[in-house]
């Protein structure tokens, strides 16, 4: 019972805050709404017995990524006040149609051939250790590649964001 | 030395002389004249040798194998019998006289050496014709003689009249020669040989049908008619007078024109093989017609050489008449005497021309005093021509008249009329040219010219004694050839008186008209105007030929030329144009279609690009939209697709 | 009870929302935020499958680790790029950065 309640709570939060991200006028507010959305997603991870991921989500996404976004937002504010978003875009109907189409397609997909809602009776186990084991055994190559990717991204970001000498 | 067996030497020597003259040219002895004369002299010696042997009855046919083609074997050889012996002698002797005469006449001509080369070639060909025993060899020499006639008539080729006359002579005789060749071929296919003795033996034996023999005889007569200028192929001889006078004397008086008569005499067995056949009648009638027509035209002709030309045609007609009535002997006899006196007459004409430069008798006159030798020799020839006894012409002509009377009184009457005309026109020529007032400057010709004239005059006067009715030595000699050639008859004094009387009448009329003016020629001309017009236009025979044959022929030729130019060349050009057009078409196709297609491809690409580039807005979100759209489509494909 | 479909439908909705935002936000950082939403939707999907599929193991969750890693990198580099663009063009609006227009 509590599962149902918490699920709908977290789901509504996520959806509504995602919508606010998209329609918020000020970009700063969007970032804040994103943080809320990500927190809700972390909650959903918890419901799904993914404890490590829930923690990682909060730490990395909400903690680092959103902060990064906030920094970037602050660094790219115009000296004169930025323009306010208008949620009716130059493209008009098209993006809405596109999104709705994708939505419809995806929902249709869910109706077909997936096992019914049998909740698993297994008791939740902590997943941190198994994930770590998996990372270093079965998925060691992607793990290493991901490390390299992180290094490259870091270096790249530093290089790109660095002020040049003559600037 | 067996001359008869080596009778081929007679033509061989002049042939050798011709070759040497052509090789040495003007550097030769006497510029070639002495070589020619030397060749002829040797021929004369050979001829004398042949005659001696034939007299001793050691003549005959000497034939050697020539070539074989399949089953056919052709031989070539010499036939030494009385006919050929006599002809050889005539040709070589008269020829020699004319050769010597030419040294004087052609003196100073730039092509002197070539003249003697042609003359020698002619002599060789003529003698070859005489001694040939095979019709093929005879035909070869026949053609060669025709060629030499062409070369010599047109000797002064820069003169257009001479060139035209040479062409005319060649073409007209060619017509006759075509018939001759057909006759030879007919005989060959019917009797299988061209060797004359064998041919005659087979004909007599009746191997071939009658019509073959008649047809062959008539065809051979075609050739004879062409060469001997019988009606209607006589038109070339008067024009042939464009050539040098010695040429006229030798070729167109004494020898070549006599070749036709000789041919008929040679092939006489063919003509006589069909008794009562048409062949001999045709020969006789054409002969007498020719004699009359030519003699009539001669009475109004003014050029002295042309008078002699018509006279020659007329006398040849008499020879043909003699053959036609069955007496080859009489014909050959007349041929011999005619050779002497006609050559002589031409020589005198040449002497006049050489001295005065004029040929029209009305421009001449009174030459009796200025050119006495010429005058006397002329008289000898003229009297012989007219047929006055005891000159040679009388004996031979009377022989023919005698034979004619035995066959047909009608023919005899016509022949007698011809005698009258002959006497008349020769008297006219003599009177107008030699008597009366002198109208032009003249001097006697040099000895080199008058010498041969005198020699021939002696012959013209005396040869008759060889064949008088009381002592027909000549006829008997010739008749030894075969009994069917007619034999001498008993002398018919009445006949002789008649012919002499007619001749004297003609002379008298001529003398009185032209020397005394009674009746006046002008008055006679006016009163007989239509007759005069007909005669002076030569019966319009030349014009008839021009209208009926030459102009249509030329028109046909120009038609062919037009066809060739328009149709054939047109077709060729058309093919060329078609090829050009085809290539233009291909070019156009290449430009329009092929290049067009290529350009179309490029244009399509560019147009597609021009339309498609509008997607590149530069905005990342538009690209993202397209991404989403693509993903959607992929989902749909996964949904609905296979 | 809450079944797999619930999570899947939720993830689809979140993805659509994120897509809509990516296509319509003018601010470039806004686009990045929307992309983060899309990625999170994917993560929810992965974890849900990992949880509801018997025998799937923890493969889904490991995948999510990687997705988070990559998203972080991408956010870092993307923001660095936006900073560059802001420095040269003094703008962060997506529709003003269209030099590659035809």
- Ends apart, CA distance between termini of chain B: 126 Å
What is the correct CATH architecture of chain C? Orthogonal Bundle
DSSP summary, beta strand count of chain B = 4
Report the structural category of chain C.
mainly alpha
Count of discrete structural domains of chain C: 1
Number of DSSP strands of chain C?
A: 0
The name of the CATH topology of chain C is Helix Hairpins
Q: What structural category characterises the helix and strand content of chain B?
A: mainly alpha
For the biggest sheet of chain B, the summary is: 2 strands, antiparallel
Largest sheet of chain C: none
Describe the overall structure.
With 167 residues, chain A is mainly α. Helices cover 70% and strands 0% of the residues of chain A. Chain A has helices spanning 2-23, 27-47, 51-75, 93-110, 128-136, 140-161. Chain B has 642 residues and is mostly helical. By secondary structure, chain C is mainly α. Chain C has a single domain, classed as Helix Hairpins. In chain C, 75% of the residues lie in helices and 0% in strands. Chain C is built from three helices and no strands. In chain C, helix 1 packs antiparallel against helix 2 (28-52) and helix 2 runs antiparallel to helix 3 (59-89). The chains are: A mainly alpha (167), B mainly alpha (642), C mainly alpha (102). Chains in contact: A-B, A-C, B-C.
In short:
The complex is a heterotrimer of chains A (167), B (642) and C (102). In chain A, 70% of the residues lie in helices and 0% in strands.
